[in-house]
Automatic annotation (TrEMBL):
This is Charged multivesicular body protein 1b. The gene is chmp1b. Belongs to the SNF7 family. InterPro entries: Snf7_fam (IPR005024). Keywords: Coiled coil. One of its GO terms (biological process) is vacuolar transport. Residues 108-135 form a coiled coil. Pfam families: Snf7 (PF03357). Signal peptide: none annotated.
Amino acid sequence: MSNMEKNLFNLKFAAKELQRSSKKCDKEEKAEKAKVKKAVQKGNMEVARIHAENAIRQKNQSVNFLRMSARVDAVAARVQTAVTMNKVTKSMAGVVKGMDVTLKSMNLEKISALMEKFERQFETLDVQTAQMEDTMSSTTTLTTPQGQVDALMMEMADEAGLDLNMELPQGQTGSVGTSVASAEQVL
């Protein structure tokens, strides 16, 4: 097993671990949401807010783990290609021997065509990786955590059949439900 192959194994393992951590955070988020609901039902808003903050933190952490997992996966894909290309290069050693004839005849067109094939593969890979990195960096959270906390508390109160009478700050609607609710208040 080469160093490259060891790196590839470690990257794939790390990506899986990060995904596991993300799922763990999702479970924690659900548990915290349930605690928000209980506290709201008991009318204990301070405790509800603490659990809502925990739930939002777990949700954001889950997204971060997932994003990092995707990033590690992207790097693993590049290493995988490097490992594959290395194997291809080794198997091409025989072909390269045959290229001596081409080199001696100075047929640059044939050599150039072969080099272009390799270069094109690397260019495609670079473009794909760049696109993936752009996509990952642009998926940032749109609402502020405080808005998310308020929205979550409202959502849990709705599920519990209670009315919190909490006004969400302008422009911080957490979900479709809360934006509809605030639109009705305006009318």
